[in-house]
Specification:
Length: about 70
């Protein structure tokens, strides 16, 4: 999946995909949702991630699901 808000850089967390401009793995957002967190709770815990980054990540993920799973 190509993302405008998630990057993989070998110099940051050993190449773990992170939100651009942060050291916050994208997986953390999914883990928080699995734990019952809201977007606001995630943003409070990870203030270097912007609301727009979260919303863009969700939109890109939704679009990927719509094209990746055949009818």
């Amino acid at each position: 999946m190509k993302s405008s808000v998630i990057r993989r850089d070998g110099e940051i967390l050993s190449g773990t995909p992170c939100f651009v401009g942060t050291r916050v793995p994208g997986r953390n957002l999914i883990d928080c949702f699995e734990g019952g967190y809201s977007i606001d709770q995630f943003l409070a815990d990870f203030p270097t991630v912007s609301r727009q980054q979260v919303l863009t990540f969700l939109e890109e993920t939704k679009a990927e699901l719509e094209t990746a799973v055949p009818a």
